[in-house]
Every structure is written in structure tokens, then in C-alpha cells.
Amino acid sequence: MECYITYCVKGYFAFNSENELISEKLFQEDEIINKLAEINDKQIVTEELEIIDEVKSDYDEIIIESNKRSSDYNNDKVTIKTPNKAGNYLRSNYDKFGLDSDDISKIYRKFAIYKIKKESAGEDKHLIQAVNSIEEIDDAISKLTETIREWYALYFPEMDVVKNNETYIKLISQNKTKEEIIKTKPDAFPQDIIDLEEDINPIDLDIMNNYANSIFELQKSRKNIENYIDSKMESIAPNLRLLVGSTLGAKLISHAGGIKRLAIYPSSTVQIMGAEKALFRHLKSGDNPPKYGLIYQHPQVRGAKWWNRGKIARTLAGMISLAVRRDVFTKTFDKNAAEEFKNKSEQIEKDNPFPTKTTKKRKEEKSKSKNKNRKGKKKRNRR
Questions:
Q1: CATH fold for the domain made of 2-120
Q2: Homologous superfamily in CATH for domain 238-352
Q3: Residue 356 pLDDT
Q4: H/E segment holding residue 32
């Protein structure tokens, strides 16, 4: 004989093969959300165990609606089938069992809000926002610095010799006039600057200094967020931080949408994360598939010979997957991971000092396909 076990927000229900209710184990009102959270996390709750124990002596097979595996129940009679016929019957006839559809909908809404709050409270969510903030600040600083360089050149064109943007902004924000700037870094400027007299309206100079101060504050904010990301990575992903560094590790977590999602990605996905456009182009037009995405920013990949980058990127992606899984699941720390990857990449470079014929041929085919695409675009533009 078979029996069917299903559940809703109120508790667990057992039915026989004729859809007759044979047992029920209801949740306490103040524990409903917690029970649903445990079920969502693939845990076997007390009420589920109780109802199985109650029916197992009278039935040969127990068919359960569940998000778990049969082996999790440690019972030979248990079979998983989602949905099963009792579940469909219960959801279609809530009123027969004293259940209010509106009340059930309200509880599901509360549980959805609970899940959102729980997920947003994760440390990796703060990390993702910090990474996004860094990117926004970088864009803003780049545009604002370009503007201040053009503007300040009207007053002190010789400042163009200062190529580092951070130094440029710091000099302007901390020194009111060109004379003060020259005294601060006398070796940086030519000796034959013609006019050191005040040749600008003080109001214009104040505005430029204030503008530079705003950019300088943004630069300080960026450094603070960068330090925050480093400490956060050390806390939640020490293995990944050691292997690829705080910045790249945080970008990978951000791109995946969370550290748990990154942990369950296969290494082949990790390898091309960030190169989605190239992947879609490959699927659409048959161009060569991308060999790396964000992980190209790792110095061992970026600094490798072009014919070895794919091999090194594949090795790194595999080690990233292992590192993240240690951080999420086993909570162990491998202090030798970075050194191991360095040795592996050096060995790849040593074993492949020259490109193979196949590699050269692929590169030639790639350049030919690019030329064809360019010619095709030119023809379409002429039309």
C-alpha cells in the first residue's frame, strides 16, 4: 500500500491512495516562518519526521513531496516525487481541511520578505555593493580629473608635466597657488617658468581649488572602500583572496551575484565570467570562443605569452573553484594555493616556449574572420 505526504505553510499532511487524510502534523503559529526557512534550506523538520514515523508501519511505500533526496531520510520506504497526487489534491481543496487560501497567501508573502531580508543581510552582499561603488567612483574620478586638467591648464599649463592623476589632484587641493605647488615639488617643473605672479581672479582660483578638493575626497573614499573590501575578503573568502587578490576576488563574487553562487559554478564558467559578449558572439557567428574573462586581470594570466594564456586561465579557474568551495563549505585554509598556481603557470610557460602549428593556424583564421567582418561592415555601410 502507498501513502502520500505533502506540506503547506500550516504543516505536513499524509493521505492514502484514495486522497483520504490519514494524519497531519501542524506547525505552531509562531514557528511557521522558521519552519519554512528550514525546509527551504533542505532540512528535515520535526513534523516531517513525526508524520513519517506515524505512517511507516501501515504502508509499504511513502511518497513524499520534498526538495531533498530519498537517501536523506534513511528509510527504504521513502520515495521522492514532487509534486505528488496528494499535494495537488491538497492545494486544490484547502477549504476541505480548514485552510484559508488568503491566509496561506499572506504567510507565503511574509516568507518571501523574510528570504529577501536574509539574503540582503549576507556579508557578500555588502561586498558586492562596495565593488559596484568602486566602479562608480572610478568613472566619476576619471571624468572629473579630465575636466580639472583642462580647467587648471588655463592658470598653470606647466602642471601638465605631472602625469599621475592622484598626485595632480593632491597638489592642487593642498596648495592654493602655483607658487606653493612649485615649492612643494621643485624638481617636477621646468626652471624657466616665466610668470609666477598672481595672474588669475582669486574667485576663479578658489572654485578650482574647491573642485580639486571634491575629487581628492572621492579618491580618499575610494581608498577607504578598497581597504574595506580587503578586510571583507579576508573575512569571508580568505582562500580566494590569497589566490587572486582582494580586488579580483571581489569582482568575481560580484559578477556571480554572491559567494555561494560562485562556489557552485563549474570552473569552465568561472574561466569566462566577464566575457559574455564574446561568448554570445561565438554562439551567434561562429567566432573563436573566449578563453578568459575577468581572470585575465590576474598578473600570471595577463603576463603570460599569448599562446599559453588559455592554459593558464583554465588552471586558474579550476583553482578558483576549489578555493571558493573551501571558503563556503569546508571553511579550511590552504596557504600554499597561490604558490602552487604560480608554479603551475611557470611550468606551462616552460613546457610551451613556442606556439604550436595549431595555435598559429587558429590565430591566422581568427585574423581572417575579423578582416571578413570588417569588409562586410564596410559594404553594408556603403549601401
A1: Nucleotidyltransferase; domain 5 (3.30.420)
A2: Nop domain (1.10.246.90)
A3: 78
A4: helix 32-40
